[in-house]
Structures are given as C-alpha cells and as structure tokens.
Amino acid sequence: MTADPPPRNYTILVALLGAFLDGYDLMIISGALLFIKVELQLSATEIGWVGAIAFAGMVAGSWSSAGSPTGSAGRARSPSCWCCS
C-alpha cells in the first residue's frame, strides 16, 4: 500500500516556510551582531567569523535534522540519536 503524495499547496507552503525561517534566522543574527560588536569590541574580521560560524551552524542543523542521519536511522530514531551522541 503506497501513501498518496502531499498536495502541491502543502509542498509549496513547506518550501516557503523553510526560506522564511532561514531569512528570519539571518535577520536575528545580523541584529545580534550589532550588540556583540560593541560588547566584545570585535574587529571587522572577527565579526565576519561570528556571522560565518552562525551560518555554518544553521547549515549543520538543517543537515542533522533532515539529512543523512534521518535517512539512515529513520525519522523516529533520529531524535534519540541526537541525545546519545
């Protein structure tokens, strides 16, 4: 027995939600960088590193929640793998 594919509108909504959340995350990071620069007295290079590391964390989080671990272990077991690793 095969499951029916999700409706097209649902797929579009999920894709748009992902793009919105990425943009929202980058907006929060850029707003926080204004205060981090003043509080920690960082140079322009250090601010660039902070922004790059935040973006790398966003990429790693998306990979770990929907990428290879989910494909190999399955959705039900993936959260338990996060807790044990």
- Gyration radius (Cα, Å) is 18 Å
What form results from the Cα inertia axes? elongated
The portion of residues assigned to helices is over 70%
Tell me the major beta sheet.
none
Summed up, the domain count is 1
Distance between the termini: 35 Å
Descriptive notes:
Helix content is 81%, strand content 0%. The chain is mostly helical and 85 residues long. The protein has one domain (1-62). Helix 1 (8-40) runs antiparallel to helix 2 (44-66). The two termini are 35 Å apart. The model has no long low-confidence stretch (mean pLDDT 75).
Brief write-up:
With 85 residues, the protein is mainly α. It has helices spanning 8-40, 44-66, 68-73, 78-84.
